[in-house]
Amino acid sequence: MPDTALPDPSLQKYQSAETIGTFEWVLENLYKANRPADEIAHQQQMWEYRQRFAGELFRAGVPVLAGTDTGTPYSVPGFALHEELELLVTAGATPLQALQAATREPARFLGQQTGKVAPGNHADLVVLDADPLADIRNTRRIDSVVAAGRVIGSAERKRMLADVEAAVQEPGQAVAAGGCCGSRPSTHK
After folding, report:
1. Would residue 113 count as lying in a domain?
2. Domain annotation covers residue 4
3. Does a structural domain hold residue 1?
4. What pLDDT shows up at residue 177?
């Protein structure tokens, strides 16, 4: 359980004050309030067990699907998957297995022609400037994105993130995820 509503302070600029306030309320009132130390210790033991279990699944060859639960406290849309991949590797997956858990395996599970680059498939791509197989944290080193057949370079990605940052500063605004797939983010009151 994190100690703060958004453990990575650099991501606060992409969340509205209302969202951060909700995260803080959930943390204080649902996760921390009136919890005895032994219950908190038990939660930590369960987290460690789940990490070991996930590693065993990978070692046994069981297909695993990545899932960020974006929209829940501590998960920032567009950034949460990087942390998920890192946690899978920490649990015992190889970087390749973690990447497959976020691409190929969900497509197989859903029976869709997506999740891989192949004739007849639909594939959005993230082009990195470092090898994620050498270090899974390199998934954060994004050079460009190809989404819906459109190349989004570094300058445009920075502009899109700046648009999100500006939109969440407006009180009462919720930012739609439209910016993730090549379109500009939209705001809704």
Report:
1. yes
2. no
3. no
4. 45
Q: How many CB atoms lie within 10 A of CB 180?
A: 15
Number of folded domains in the chain?
1
pLDDT in tens, 19-50: 778 878 887 887 777 788 888 889 889 989 99
- The boundaries of the domain holding residue 142 are 9-188
CB 177 within 8 A of CB 77: yes
At residue 6, the pLDDT reads: 66
Tell me which residues of the chain have a pLDDT lower than 50: 176-189
Note whether 167 and 175 are within 8 A (CB). Answer: yes
Euclidean distance between CA atoms 173 and 180, whole angstroms: 18
Q: Rounded to whole angstroms, how far apart are CA atoms 81 and 88?
A: 10
Nearest CA among 47, 166, 171 for reference residue 179: 166
